[in-house]
Amino acid sequence: MIAPITGKLRKRFWLDVGCSIGLGVAAGYAYWYGVHLKALERQENFYIKLERDRVKAQSS
After folding, report:
1. Is 59 inside any structural domain?
2. Which domain holds residue 46?
3. For residue 51, which of 6, 22, 36, 42 sits 20 to 30 Å off, Cα-Cα?
4. Is residue 29 in a domain?
C-alpha cells in the first residue's frame, strides 16, 4: 500500500497564491508606469497645446 501524501496541496496552494499576488502587483505597476502615465501625459500635452492655440487665435 502507498502512503498518502499529506500537506502537499496546502503548501502548493500558498505558493501559487503568493506568486499570483506578486505577479499581479508587478504587472499592475508595469501597466501603470509603462502605459497609463505616458498616455495621460500625451493627453495633457494635447489639451495644453489646444488651449494655447485657442488663446493665440483669440488674441490675434
Report:
1. yes
2. 34-60
3. 36
4. no
Measured CA to CA, the distance from residue 37 to residue 42 in angstroms comes to: 9
pLDDT tens column, 7-16: 777 778 889 9
Q: Which three cell numbers stand for residue 4?
A: 498518502
Determine the Cα–Cα distance for residues 19 and 10; give it in Å rounded to an integer.
14
Q: Residue 7 has what DSSP assignment?
A: S
Q: Does pTM top 0.85 for this prediction?
A: no
Alpha helices in 1-60 (DSSP H): 8-31, 37-59
User: Considering its fold, how many domains does the chain have in total?
Assistant: 1
Task: State the DSSP code for 3.
Answer: P
